[in-house]
Predict the structure.
Amino acid sequence: MTRILILVFIAGFIVFFLRYKKTVKLAELPAGYRDLLLAHVAFYRGLDEAGKKRFEEKIKELLGYIHIHGVKTEVTDLDRLLIASSGVIPIFGFPEWKYYNLRDILLYPGAFNEIDFNIKEDSDILGMVGSGTMQRMMILSKPALHHGFENTSGRENTGIHEFVHLLDKEDGDVDGFPEALLDKQYTLPWLNLVAEEIESIKEGRSDFNGYGAKNKAEFFAVAAEYFFEQPGIFKEQHPELYELMTRIFNQRPNVNNGPVS
Ligand SMILES: [Zn+2]
């Protein structure tokens, strides 16, 4: 009898431990979060009801394991929702994904200096993911974060851009090639298309943001912004690249997402 009791106790303990381990702390969403998401996040608007629910759960999860710090600026509910949306959009095709390489986000009142991270209004640096002593850290300019989700932003979204660098970094390098996400057979087609498009940017024949010509990593991040901001136009203009992007991100964003007329 005692033995059975001990066994039951051990079994109970194991079940408790497994459940405990599985539990991820979920953040509480602010009041009115649905209206805020509907008003500001086109990707969310384009989802069906089940998709919207899943998106909200992913936001709670992400906000549960990252810390957002305002640097000389206040962090509002909308800031938190936009940061989380920037992170959830690129990984929406991977239900289990977590950004293990991210812990803190510093929200800046504007652009900053890449060298010492001081606020610098005339700089064009609006976001970055850290390395070295800045490991697991991201810096975002608050106006740039907001601008990315406005209808007038075109195909740019700084938040998505920086989170895509993290996705790229998951396999060790920020090299513009997410090895883990693309089958080997697509490696060559991907690298060829990227090289071709970078050439087009340099020759002024491309509709990609010119920053994408800097290197393959920036091209990948810039292409992802365009892919999620204006998927319909992206698909029309770059059908082959579009197909490979759907494989990398394991999703097809709603082609109706984009500027609201
Ligand atoms: Zn970048």
Summary: Strands lie at 67-70, 104-108, 127-129, 137-141. The radius of gyration is 20 Å. The chain has a mean pLDDT of 90.
